[in-house]
Specification:
- The protein is an alpha+beta fold and about 325 residues long.
- The chain has one domain: 4-Layer Sandwich (Glutamine Phosphoribosylpyrophosphate, subunit 1, domain 1), CATH 3.60.20.30.
- Helix content is about 35%, strand content about 20%.
- It is built from ten helices and twelve strands.
- Strands 4-3-2-6-5-1-11-12 form an eight-stranded mixed sheet. A four-stranded antiparallel sheet has the order 7-8-9-10.
- β2 and β3 form a beta hairpin.
- α3 runs antiparallel to α4 and α9 crosses α10.
- It is globular and about 50 Å long.
- The two termini are about 15 Å apart.
């Protein structure tokens, strides 16, 4: 997509009228030295609150890793957000299982998958990273580790999600709905004033999934990837398709090869689309979105279809930007 087409898709006017956050999204520097300062970006409108919190924490001295964890924990603890943490929609057996991963600028990683009874799986993923010789714990093992580390245990199934599940049981028909059921993740990236990058991805996964299903969100390289010398990327949407293309790593690798964050996100989505075509599979019920940020603070976002958006928080404020898309 040409930059002019991108601006047109966003519905923006002349470059001189754009805010600094919109300039960053268009791949333009906001200062001649390229120094963006501390900033954070995250998937979907609820990231307006999480990115603001991360930015405020970094202004007070928090590093990128601490800030990104603090940000996503806001979403995890909010029972109104029915695709992340407490209040997340259950699997077809009525069990809420959570996935998360975290990564810093040095390549330190931690991940948990199919974890039950723990609200802040982002913090649990960090505990795996910092307190174990492993990078991923799953299922009962992840829950056991959380208990041993003193994480509170609680029921994650709120009454609204339980009611939806019981309604679903009447037909037991599994069908993803773009931007609704696929709106299943918060992925957030931060850059602190020292130039350190970090990212976190956390989710309750697809509603009414088979018990034990794991998507891309806890998988380093698929749902999240950070290269402290290049940039970072995270994904949202149909996790199986992101895994198939190692999506977030693909975005960062493209930035390493010289592409802008925006172009790198576009290329990753187009590659996923090519896989659909190659396999002869329909994509009408699929949504995929990527966001990315490089070490200069430029950002990008792109989705397979309309409906995706992401938040950008910088010293000039927080904005939710509509994600440009491939297929109307």
């Amino acid at each position: 997509m040409k930059r002019s087409d991108f601006l047109k898709t966003l519905g923006l006017g002349a470059v001189g009228a754009l805010t600094s956050n919109q300039l960053l999204a268009a791949g333009q520097p906001v200062a001649s030295d390229g120094a963006a300062g501390a900033m954070s970006i995250g998937t979907w409108p609820f990231a307006e609150h999480t990115t603001r919190a991360a930015l405020e924490a970094m202004k007070k001295g928090a590093n990128a890793l601490d800030a990104v964890e603090l940000g996503v924990k806001i979403c995890e603890a909010d029972p109104r957000e029915r695709s992340v943490g407490l209040g997340g929609r259950p699997d077809r057996d009525g069990r809420v299982t959570l996935d998360a991963c975290i990564m810093d600028h040095l390549g330190n990683i931690g991940s948990v998958a199919a974890c039950e009874q723990v609200v802040h799986v982002s913090s649990l993923a960090r505990a795996v990273m910092e307190r174990t010789p492993h990078v991923m714990l799953v299922g009962d093992g992840a829950t056991q580790f959380a208990r041993e580390q003193g994480f509170p245990m609680q029921n994650l199934l709120v009454s609204e999600s339980e009611a939806e599940w019981k309604k679903w049981l009447e037909k037991s028909e599994y069908k993803a709905i773009p931007n609704v059921e696929n709106h299943d993740t918060i992925g957030q990236l931060t850059l602190d004033s020292e130039g350190r990058l970090a990212g976190c991805c956390t989710t309750s996964g697809m509603a009414f999934k088979m018990h034990g299903r794991v998507g891309d969100s806890p998988i380093i390289g698929a749902g999240l990837y950070v290269d402290g010398e290049v940039g970072a990327a995270t994904a949202t949407g149909h996790g199986e398709e992101v895994i198939r293309t190692v999506g977030s790593f693909r975005v960062v690798a493209a930035m390493k090869a010289g592409k802008s964050p925006q172009r790198a996100c576009e290329d990753a989505v187009r590659e996923i689309h090519r896989f659909f075509v190659r396999r002869g599979k329909p994509w009408a019920d699929t949504q995929i979105g990527f966001i990315a940020m490089d070490v200069q603070g430029r950002v990008g976002g792109f989705a397979l279809r309309p409906g995706f958006s992401y938040a950008v928080a910088t010293k000039d404020g927080v904005e939710v930007l509509p994600g440009p898309f491939m297929i109307a």
